[in-house]
Write a structure and sequence with these properties.
- Strand 8, helix 17 (about 405-415) and strand 9 (about 420) form a beta-alpha-beta unit.
- Mean pLDDT is about 95; it is low at about 1-5.
- The protein folds into three domains: about 5-40, no CATH class; about 50-255, no CATH class; about 260-445, Rossmann fold.
- The protein has helices spanning about 30-40, 50-65, 70-75, 105-120, 135, 155-160, 170-175, 195-200, 205-210, 225-230, 235-240, 250-255, 260-275, 295-310, 345-355, 380-395, 405-415, and strands spanning about 95-100, 125, 185-190, 215-220, 280-285, 335-340, 365, 400, 420, 435, 470, 480.
- The strands form three sheets. A six-stranded mixed beta sheet has the order 7-6-5-8-9-10, sandwiched between helices. Strands 2-1-4-3 form a four-stranded parallel beta sheet. Strands 11-12 form a two-stranded antiparallel ribbon.
- The protein has 17 helices and twelve strands.
- The chain is about 35% helix and about 10% strand.
- The structure holds guanosine-5'-diphosphate.
- Guanosine-5'-diphosphate binds near residues 341, 385 and 407.
């Protein structure tokens, strides 16, 4: 099945302009080379520099990954009481371990951020496999694995790493326990919503001189910290070469890294073929509700209707059966994909368009794949459904997403779409205006450092570099690239 657009006569670009390597067996991960069948041809091309950097990263990962001499060497003394002994050889490779915490949207954003940091610093990314990551995603690097071996020496301790840990970078900085002459064999980076500025500044040039020498970094993160990497001039030079179109960072990295497993891909394609492929136009609406307040459902419902009609994403309703204008014009079929933990939003929308005709005569079909009611992160099928829905949303023509939801950020950014963001309702009211069109498709860094890398604390972090601004959905907060 080919996307509804006229792309079918173009040769299929299954390697996404060289972003993907051809070195994988196709059947083991169907989504990797089939995704191009479901997407419109892309307006955003990866730079040659990014492509060459990815190919060299793949070689580095093969040289340093699990089951290599280099990995053995690097883990030999890790976690032993005497790991601090000077001149213990750790080998030629440096690593960054990504630990799975929080929901799926958070995980996808942070894994992409950690991978970009690894590209910039020539580290190898290994992912914590104690959660269901391998039921969700295929291996992204050929001839090796990105899964952290389960006998990794620090495995048992990682769960307990927090701000209070003596090797937490922010804590060491705060307590001035960093000594440039003795480099610790591992450091913990805490990049969560409750991080202190000290934790969030690990990427700054002065901090990097020490961190760069540490063989193992362990990261727990739940925020998309990519925008702040621009604050480091060395990184910035490199980033501009990698991503001449600045708002395409997550877009390219996500298409390179995240390939749903065959099980998830089956869910994506079955939904797509049954509900979206025949439509003339598709609209995704992601409804994330962070409040249990009474009446919330109705406020948000009103907001969805107000936003989609005001922005002409969906037609209004005719007041009488006979009042439909333009009857001669051929009726368009618009498919609306709704994703939410709650089925009520799509039920309401479906009823609305069944009970009354649209003013344009267009036919509206509403579909919601699941309504799981509550978040069940780390339950395999629940997470697989969540990923399938994020992916399906990314295949729509236009998208409306909820403010401050990383689930929504991943969906629109992966799709290369500038979303309409539904403001978060406050004080039990439908916000007016109900939504805002994003200026770029990049995800938002929800809890960025308050200032740049310099010592001046009064510098607004949205004013430090020209390509980074506050997020549309947070009004005067957050950071995003544009
Ligand atoms: P965020 O909390 O909105 O930033 O997004 P996360 O993805 O990090 O966490 C929310 C989690 O709740 C998801 O990972 C899912 O497990 C679940 N969830 C929230 N909204 C939906 C939805 O629309 N569909 C499905 N299937 N799950 C959802």
């Amino acid at each position: 099945i080919v996307n509804g657009s006229n792309d079918s006569d173009k040769p299929r670009d299954k390697l996404l302009e060289g972003l993907l390597t051809a070195d994988f067996d196709e059947d083991s991960c169907l989504s990797r080379y089939q995704s191009s069948l479901y997407r419109k041809s892309s307006a955003y091309k990866p730079s040659e520099y990014l492509v060459s950097k990815l190919r060299s990263y793949e070689k580095l990962h093969q040289r340093c990954g699990p089951d290599t001499e280099a990995y053995k060497q690097a883990t030999k003394n890790l976690g032993h009481d005497d790991e601090n002994h000077a001149n213990k050889s750790v080998g030629e490779c440096k690593y960054i371990v990504w630990v799975a915490v929080y929901g799926l949207g958070n995980r996808i954003l942070t894994l992409a951020s950690v991978f970009l940091y690894a590209l910039l610093t020539e580290r190898v990314v290994l992912v914590d496999q104690s959660k269901d990551i391998s039921d969700l995603f295929c291996e992204p690097f050929p001839g090796t694995s990105w899964l952290l071996p389960s006998d990794f020496p620090l495995m048992k301790q990682i769960d307990g790493y927090d701000k209070g840990y003596s090797r937490c970078y922010g804590t060491m900085l705060k307590n001035q326990t960093i000594n440039s002459t003795s480099i610790p064999p591992h450091l913990y980076l805490h990049i969560l919503h409750d991080s202190r500025d000290e934790d969030k500044m690990f990427f700054c040039q002065k901090d990097q001189t020490m961190i760069n020498k540490v063989p193992w970094l362990i990261v727990k993160a739940n925020v998309y910290f990519v925008p702040s990497l621009w604050f480091n001039p060395t990184f910035q030079t490199e980033l501009i070469k990698l991503f001449p179109q600045k708002e395409t960072v997550f877009y390219h990295l996500a298409r390179y890294l995240f390939h749903p497993t065959n099980q998830v891909w089956g869910m994506v394609t079955r939904s797509y073929d049954a509900y979206l492929s025949r439509a003339d136009e598709t609209l995704g609406i992601q409804v994330r509700v962070f409040s249990r307040r009474a009446g919330y459902l109705q406020h948000v419902m009103n907001q969805i209707v107000a936003c989609t009609q005001r922005e002409k994403l969906l037609p209004g309703l005719a007041t009488h059966e006979s009042q439909v204008t333009n009857t001669s014009r051929s009726k368009k079929l618009k498919a609306v994909l709704v994703t939410s933990l709650y089925p009520e939003y799509s039920d309401n929308l479906k009823n609305m368009y069944w009970e009354r005709p649209t003013s344009t005569g267009d036919i509206i079909e509403v579909y919601q794949p699941s309504g799981e009611r509550f978040q069940q992160t780390d339950k395999k099928l629940h997470d697989q459904k969540a990923l399938a829905e994020i992916y399906l949303l990314s295949l729509t023509d236009n998208i409306v997403t909820s403010a401050r939801s990383t689930f929504g950020y991943v969906a629109h950014s992966l799709g290369g779409l500038k979303p309409w963001l539904l403001y978060q309702p406050t004080r039990g009211k439908t916000p007016d205006p109900p939504c805002v069109r994003a200026v770029s498709m990049e995800p938002c860094f929800l809890t960025p450092p308050t200032h740049g890398c310099g010592a001046k604390k009064r510098v607004n972090s949205a004013k430090v570099v020209p390509c980074v601004r506050h997020c549309e959905d947070l009004r005067h907060d957050g950071l995003k690239l544009f």
